[in-house]
Design a protein that fits this description.
single chain; 3 domains; disordered N terminus; 0% strand; 12 helices
């Protein structure tokens, strides 16, 4: 990168940091949580997980309202100087880890020097799981490589992109797998004792889901026979 471009970017970063430092000085005595958010945003490239967890709380409790902002986006853009796309990735990555890989969060909290997977790594794994194209053994292998072995996103992509994100010719098969996975999840949820639905509605849904799974299973058998012949 040309020297003048580097200097220009440094000035921009410095000015942004100065504005954030000034805001921090205004709020640090009266609002520790708001001050903490500013501190985390200033250093989030080194501690994205801390910022993501704090942002999740801000979003859930709508703390930005008490700080005078009309929305989370307005708060993160104007006070934390974060792009909406960055905020979306931060929240999605943390929520994925919390739901699918809580051991990673526990390890990071218990060991200060524990490696933190990058947002790109978490995003790759989350999208691969959501896509549903790879089988469970591949997902398990990928997750271990990403979260236990510290394999970077570029290497994960090289290893698993073809199987996790196949070309569009296999889109029908992928959609079928996604439908089956979602139907099974909904069926499991319908069995919850505190389900907030009328009994008849739950029964009708359960019947429809059972029929869907039966149809998908029949289609798979037919496709397998067609391939064999």
């Amino acid at each position: 990168m040309p020297t003048d471009r580097v200097q220009q970017m440094s000035k921009i970063i410095t000015k942004t940091d100065e504005r954030m430092a000034q805001q921090l000085a205004k709020v640090e005595d009266g609002d520790p949580k708001r001050a903490n958010m500013l501190n985390l945003a200033r250093t989030f490239k080194k501690s994205w997980l801390d910022l993501a967890e704090a942002l999740t709380e801000v979003d859930k409790k709508q703390l930005w309202k008490g700080w005078g902002f009309p929305s989370l986006e307005s708060y993160t853009k104007n006070e934390l100087h974060l792009k909406p796309s960055t905020v979306t990735k931060l929240l999605a990555s943390f929520r994925y880890l919390r739901g699918a890989a809580p051991s990673v969060l526990q390890r990071v909290r218990e060991k200060n020097n524990s490696p933190i997977p990058s947002m790109k790594v978490v995003n790759f794994v989350a999208k691969a799981v959501d896509r549903g194209a790879a089988d469970q053994s591949t997902i398990t292998e990928m997750t271990k490589a990403a979260f236990d072995e510290g394999v970077p996103a570029e290497v994960l992509s090289k290893r698993y992109k073809k199987v996790a994100f196949p070309v569009e010719k296999d889109s029908e098969d992928i959609l079928q797998k996604q439908l089956i996975r979602v139907a099974k999840k909904l069926t499991a949820l319908l069995a919850h004792p505190d389900l907030p639905l009328p009994h008849q509605t739950a029964t009708d849904l359960e019947t429809s889901l059972a029929r869907l799974l039966e149809d998908m299973d029949g289609k798979k058998e037919a496709d397998d026979k067609a391939v064999a012949n």
